[in-house]
Amino acid sequence: QVRLVESGGGLVQAGDSLRLSCAASGRHSISYGMGWFRQAPGKEREFVAAISWNGGSAYADFVKGRFTISRDNAENTVHLQMNSLKPEDTAVYYCAAVLSGLAYRSPNQYDYWGQGTQVTVSS
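Predicted structure:
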């Protein structure tokens, strides 16, 4: 069983930064592919960024140049550094893990999900 716990969300102003973290438990967690997704009210869950077991990354077009995903295998943690935040970034952000170790864009590929953390960006 894999448990994912997100942290770091909050209320910020446009242009500010936040760093989300996702702590993963599980025997082989350092080999998981990890992804960040977000869901705004009334919208479907959408891909934000993902990182493979060996550090390969993928990003949604709308966050390129603003967000950076990274992983700390020693701490079994994945981070999402979010800079230049915009009001349209407001959403619940979810961390997900996939046992294959790859960095998928589709939420359907992921095996485990965290409970989410709220990010609110005011204008």
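Summary: The chain has a mean pLDDT of 95.
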